[in-house]
Write a structure and sequence with these properties.
29% helix; alpha/beta; single chain; 310 residues; Rossmann fold; seven-stranded mixed sheet; three-stranded antiparallel sheet; 9 helices
Length: 310
């Protein structure tokens, strides 16, 4: 496909550019409703859905580690879930990247964490972190794409208690149909009353052309607000809570580039798998980002100390 120039007439039929007014059309921000982002003209090393892109990005791992530090909220949530079961909590951490969140999840007793990412570069870093943190015994690292692993997991007859799509879906798939498939596979991988924690990026201009907060020149593929909720509730998930917030970020915008400050609009949603007409409620409070309990800092310090003493 010919790369669109500044002449908006060269954008394919039915598509439009998300460039801000009077700005040059970016190769990354051409969107076609019902299809998603058009990417045929973008080189593989600049496409977020390609392994080569992430292998190159993770060479700048320091900036990503600073940008994507694990939040205490989901860790406290998992800790509280483990208190409700005697069996190990099976957690799928999809598109898990450099492994900080994986290692933190594995610090919580009675968990088995499946770390899934298709970048060998990222998984090598994640493995070193898990070994250094002495939590490798309850981590499985799988170098494969999200859909491939979810299909393997489902076909093996296994079921998960929790699936984390923590920024790994909803900004990496240019095609909206592929995004829907990943969400649906994630639901199929869950036990009844299993939880899906979804964090993704949004582009508000896809539903409101006058909302100009978020630029779309970064190589991300943010989705229309409301899309995740619609897909998940249509396949049997019940929304527990959701929030949308602006999130400053700092990392390279293209592989090998210098880190840049920029802004995302981030969606966070927690869903539970229920039977039709059932209404599932959590027995405890949780926070998407921050912990709820004033005691969480002390609890977390003790959990990490257990592994240091071992």
């Amino acid at each position: 496909m010919k790369f669109p120039s500044d002449n908006k007439n060269e954008i394919p039929d039915g598509a439009f550019s998300l460039a801000l007014p009077n700005e040059k059309i970016s190769e990354h921000n051409i969107y076609k409703p019902g299809f998603g982002y058009i990417t045929d003209h973008i080189s593989e090393d600049h496409q977020r859905g390609q392994i080569i892109h992430w292998d190159e990005q993770y060479k700048e791992s320091d900036s990503f580690e600073e940008s994507w530090k694990p939040r205490p909220g989901p860790l406290e949530f998992i800790y509280n879930l483990t208190k409700e079961t005697t069996s190990p909590l099976i957690i799928l951490n999809m598109g898990a990247g450099l492994g900080d969140f994986t290692s933190d999840l594995a610090h919580i007793p009675n968990t088995i964490v499946h770390h899934v990412d298709f970048s060998k570069q990222g998984n090598d870093i994640a493995r070193r972190k898990a070994i250094d943190s002495q939590v490798m015994d309850n981590i499985e690292i799988h170098t494969i794409d999200n859909d491939g692993y979810l299909n393997q997991f489902i076909n093996s007859g296994k079921k998960a208690d929790v699936v984390f799509l923590y920024g790994a879906s909803g900004s990496n798939e240019p095609n909206d149909i592929a995004y829907q498939k990943t969400l649906e596979l994630s639901v199929s991988a869950l036990k009844k009353k299993g939880y899906l924690w979804h964090v993704s990026m949004l582009q508000p201009r896809l539903v409101n052309s006058s909302d100009l907060r978020i630029q779309d020149t970064l190589g991300d593929f943010p989705k229309p607000p409301g899309m995740a909720k619609r897909i998940l509730t249509n396949v049997g998930m019940q929304l527990i809570d959701e929030e949308t917030s602006e999130r400053p970020d700092f990392h390279p915008l293209v592989p090998g580039g210098d880190p840049k400050h920029h802004l995302h609009l981030v969606y966070r949603g927690l869903f539970v798998k229920t039977a039709k007409n059932e209404n599932e409620r959590l027995k405890f409070k949780f926070g998407f980002r921050d912990s709820v309990s004033e005691r969480w800092g002390d609890i977390w310090s003790k959990l990490k100390e257990i592994y240091r003493m071992d």
